[in-house]
Structures are given as structure tokens and as C-alpha cells.
Amino acid sequence: MVGAWILLMFAVAVAAAGCGSSATSGAGGEVKVEAKDQGRQIDVQQGQALVVTLESNPSTGYTWEQAEAGDQVLDSLGKPEFSSQSNKLGAPGMQTLRFRASRSGQTTLKLVYHRSWEEGIEPLQIFTIQVHVK
Length: 134
Known about the structure:
mainly beta; Immunoglobulin-like; 6-stranded mixed beta sheet; 4-stranded mixed beta sheet; 1 helix; about 45% strand; globular
């Protein structure tokens, strides 16, 4: 009986892992997104925070920035944060951008990895997700 119960729980866990987006819910109702979520649809509840964390190295001048504000479904929550992966000068790390799902709707969140002062030059990377706020 215990073996059947464990097998059932395993099957439920495997089935649940295959459903929906790969974004994870964190503390305080945050929905966390990372590079592997590129191009996916992310479902967020109105009022929840959407937290995007991507590799970055600001010592090179490159940073992640929202390309366009769009239709105000998402509001930016402050300035991006950077955490280094090392204590060495110029080391890469992770940049985190936070948004609040302010009203229901569908929007495209487009982030560009570029040097903000370089005009007319294509971004080094682009990160895009479809956000559906319920």
C-alpha cells in the first residue's frame, strides 16, 4: 500500500512538472523568471511581482533594460539590482529586474542587453516573454 502511494505521488509530481511555464513562485507571491523562460508565456496574478534574473556583466558597460514600457500591464519596481558571482573586480553576475502586475491583460516584456549610450547599435542579447496577468 505504501509503495502504491509513493508511486502515485511520483506520477502526480511528474505530470505537474510538465504543465505550464517553467517560472517559479517565490516568497511573497513573486513569480521568478530566468533565461530558460525565453519566449514562453508566464501567468501572473494581478498585484504579484514578476522577478526576472539574467546573467550580466556591467563592468563591460552592458546591462539589461526594458525596451519599451508598452501598455502599463506591468510597472517597473525600482532600478535593476546586480549581484556578482565573485569578489573579483569585473566578475560577471546576475542582474535582477522587478515588475508589478498592475492590471489584468496580456503584454510582451522585452528586455535588451546593451550599452545604453550606444545609439544605432543592435543589443547584444534580447529576452522576451509573454506575460498574462489574471
